[in-house]
Known about the structure:
Elements (H helix, E strand, L loop, with lengths): L1 H7 L1 H28 L5 H41 L9 H17 L4 E8 L2 H8 L1 H17 L6 E6 L2 E7 L3 H17 L2 E2 L5 E2 L3 E7 L8 H17 L5 E3 L5 E2 L1
Parallel strand pairs: 6-7
Antiparallel strand pairs: 1-3, 1-6, 2-3, 4-5, 7-8
Amino acid sequence: MREGLxxxxxxxxxxxxxxxxxxxxxxxxxxxxxxxxxxxxxxxLISTASVVPALICPxxxxxxxxxxxxxxxMENKMRYLASYDDLTELLSRRAFLTSSQKLFSLMNRSHKPxxxxxxxxxxxxxxxxxxxxxxxxxxxxxFSVILEVHTRSSDLVGRIGGEEFAIALPDTGxxxxxxxxELIREVSEQQMLTTSSKATLSYTISIGISTSDSNxxxxxEQLIQQADRALYEAKVAGKNRIIQFETETxxx
Length: 252
């Protein structure tokens, strides 16, 4: 019902409901008038029966429909906030994991490769300490735009927490995943960001990749753990690089 009201709009809904109320009042009054009093239906009866709903119904229904639409919009907003990160507008951690699981299962059934990339902005705490948390938020938003621009429509991109992000790459092997994230790493490294406070800063990222093995039975959770481990190794190895879990080969 709420979806229907949202589609037709408040004004049209009030007009339609008022018309229905008037018609119902006329029909009911006519039935009572003829059955109880044995009187014929005339224009005076029709006018009287339609005046009250015509006067009252628009005001009542305007209020009721507004409350209904407000509730509908609030529910939509709550669903959006549950699925998307408020700052970056990327998928939230929960939504990313849920959608990735469906995609991973589909790739498994189709015997196609599936890769997960875990990404961390290097020295993000220093950015916050040096330029302030507002600048840190601008870095996160700037990087989220890079992710959206340089990933494919079939990929899933989410903010996992803090300065950590993840990409799910369906039908993509290790080398294909490396190509996608290497471009993201290069663009991030070359970008000079001017914040709203007029500070100019740059940043780098570290990335860990894990790819499903058709010869092994794996779960999405295992792939994520492997990508997270590869990300840790990229940090230890000096940051601003990519490490793939399977071979621990890095691309700089």
